[in-house]
Amino acid sequence: MTHSHGDEDSNKDSISLFGAVGMGTGVMIGAGIFALTGQIAQLAGPYFALSFVLGAIITSFSAYSYIKMSDAWPSSGGIAMILQKAYGPGAIAAAASLLMALSMVISESLVARTFATYVLRPFDISGGPLVPILAVGVILFAFLVNISGNRSIGLLSIIMAVIKIGGIALFGIVALWSGGFSLPEASDNVSGFSTTGFVASVALSILAFKGFTTITNSGGEITDPHRNVGRTIMISIAICIMIYLLVALAVGSNLTIDEIVESKDYSLAEAAEPAFGRAGFYFTVVLAVVATASGVLASVFAVSRMLAMLTKMKMIPHSHFGMSGPIRSHTLVYTVVLASTLAVFFDLSRIASLGAFFYLIMDMLVHWGVFRHLRKEIGASGAILLCALGFDAIVLVAFATMKLRSDPMIVLYAVIAITAVFAYERTYLSHWTVPQDDGGD
């Protein structure tokens, strides 16, 4: 099987460079700022802004594999193509691809619950049944927009990206100025900070940047993909690190670490009130709603196409369940159902942790596969690939260590789920790897 499978019915050239950047930043900013800032601060303490910087550096190394592969073979469902090129159409490629798809579904539920949390914040509601109900509602909204077509998604992504990036930048500048450019303080109540915790926090920072894979998975539909996929990825990462760093410093200037951790699911709204007053609080809530809604929208778009690609590549089974229409319509439904289920049964912290485990395992398999089988064919640097692999491994070990102390059950859930994915794919495909005739060593 080749990378072209599944692309024959894609809408080529339907997503512009700016539309792709809008989708990438839509996923990253939606998850990174509003869903993860507090959780990162809980692990990294007063150095949580630095965690975002390290996350961006490691993500840039990781992006190298995806950019080199996408330059050579741009494809819708691009990560599945990368893994199949590296390992052949066997269980390793299929399982890693499925882990990526599941981590994207997890991101949808993460950002959807963040949307619900911010919507309810003005009413002083922080839990209860309204959180999952609103989370499922925004996922269904994303489904309706997605079935309207790619051009609607691209246009809406651009509009929402401009609104939220401009608004968040304004928030960051004014809040940082109001807070006196000071670093966040930690009171005596904050305990347990360690180097391991800081390194573990980088796992969540990486998760905040992983939206660049949305671009990779839509490679076959971006205009002039051989040039624009790589450009879009780097532009999106650059925009996001500037926004993340600005906002992290702004939040730290207005709240102590205790206050950030206490309000970790809505820390930006809390930081806005000292700087802007109550009007600023509501302004930030509106920004959060726009950012998280666009994040869900972009993620649903990408993961449904990746599942369709996996189906066409015979990596996962497919059932119509009585539904009519093309496979992509079915995978949209599957995506929405899975994300809604997670949004109902898991809280933000556990959703983020599960997503980090899935993504880092998949990312390491991508780097190893490209290094072992494809680096000469695509002209990739072995040193950069090994650095990316090593960085992921260090962060994964630190994150697992911290979670074993604080929430061992989520580690158990992750191990069971990852093992089940690989076992299922090994049973379904009956072989781990299949040599590729067009591969290179």
TrEMBL record:
<keyword id="KW-1003">Cell membrane</keyword>
<dbReference type="Pfam" id="PF13520">
    <property type="entry name" value="AA_permease_2"/>
</dbReference>
<keyword id="KW-0472">Membrane</keyword>
<feature type="transmembrane region" description="Helical">
    <location>
        <begin position="233"/>
        <end position="257"/>
    </location>
</feature>
<feature type="transmembrane region" description="Helical">
    <location>
        <begin position="408"/>
        <end position="424"/>
    </location>
</feature>
<feature type="transmembrane region" description="Helical">
    <location>
        <begin position="281"/>
        <end position="308"/>
    </location>
</feature>
<dbReference type="InterPro" id="IPR050367">
    <property type="entry name" value="APC_superfamily"/>
</dbReference>
<feature type="transmembrane region" description="Helical">
    <location>
        <begin position="15"/>
        <end position="41"/>
    </location>
</feature>
<dbReference type="GO" id="GO:0022857">
    <property type="term" value="F:transmembrane transporter activity"/>
</dbReference>
<feature type="transmembrane region" description="Helical">
    <location>
        <begin position="352"/>
        <end position="371"/>
    </location>
</feature>
<feature type="transmembrane region" description="Helical">
    <location>
        <begin position="190"/>
        <end position="212"/>
    </location>
</feature>
<dbReference type="InterPro" id="IPR002293">
    <property type="entry name" value="AA/rel_permease1"/>
</dbReference>
<feature type="transmembrane region" description="Helical">
    <location>
        <begin position="47"/>
        <end position="67"/>
    </location>
</feature>
<dbReference type="GO" id="GO:0005886">
    <property type="term" value="C:plasma membrane"/>
</dbReference>
<feature type="transmembrane region" description="Helical">
    <location>
        <begin position="329"/>
        <end position="346"/>
    </location>
</feature>
<protein>
    <submittedName>
        <fullName>Amino acid permease</fullName>
    </submittedName>
</protein>
<feature type="transmembrane region" description="Helical">
    <location>
        <begin position="154"/>
        <end position="178"/>
    </location>
</feature>
<feature type="transmembrane region" description="Helical">
    <location>
        <begin position="383"/>
        <end position="402"/>
    </location>
</feature>
<feature type="transmembrane region" description="Helical">
    <location>
        <begin position="126"/>
        <end position="147"/>
    </location>
</feature>
<keyword id="KW-0812">Transmembrane</keyword>
<keyword id="KW-1133">Transmembrane helix</keyword>
<feature type="transmembrane region" description="Helical">
    <location>
        <begin position="87"/>
        <end position="106"/>
    </location>
</feature>
